[in-house]
Amino acid sequence: QVQLVESGGGLVQAGGSLRLSCAASGITFNGYYTLGWFRQAPGKEREFVATISWSGGSTAYGNSATGRFTISRDNAKNLVYLQMNSLKPEDTAVYYCAARYGPIAYRRNDYDYWGQGTQVTVSS
């Protein structure tokens, strides 16, 4: 059974940083699994944030994340991270970790497995 568990969310002031983690179990982590981060703010659609290939050699970011967020993974520990810098109030959302078997992808429907999410709140 695939399980993704996010952690690291919280309350931070604008301009601050947070690092989210996602622990994966039940999948062959260094198999051909792509990991991704999405976020959803109240009243809005779930939005693509970042994705990373199984090897870590390919990454991609959504417009809101480019230049401020960095995705990485540690296959030895079955973890994927999202380092978020220069946070803005508009980054406030529930952040979700997701996994799919295959190359990097950007659409919510491309991902097969989801975590429960972790709340990130950025105060102005």
Can you walk me through this structure?
By secondary structure, the protein is mainly beta. It is built from no helices and eleven strands. The chain has strands spanning 3-7, 10-13, 18-25, 33-40, 47-52, 59-61, 69-74, 79-84, 93-101, 113-114, 118-123. The strands form two sheets. Strands 2, 4, 5, 6, 9, 10 and 11 form a seven-stranded mixed sheet that branches. The chain has a four-stranded antiparallel sheet with strand order 1-3-8-7, with no helix packed on it. It is globular and about 40 Å long. 32% of the residues are buried. The mean pLDDT is 94.
What Rg is obtained from the alpha carbons, in whole angstroms? 13 Å
Distance between termini? Answer: 40 Å
Uncertain stretches: none
Number of strands: 11
The largest sheet, given as strand count, sense and whether it forms a barrel, is:
7 strands, mixed
Overall morphology: globular
Mean pLDDT across residues: 94
Number of helices: 0
The oligomeric state of the chains shown is single chain
- How much β-strand is present in the residues? over 45%
Counting helices, strands and paired strands, the structural category is mainly beta
The SSE string, one letter per element, is: EEEEEEEEEEE
Helix coverage percent = under 10%
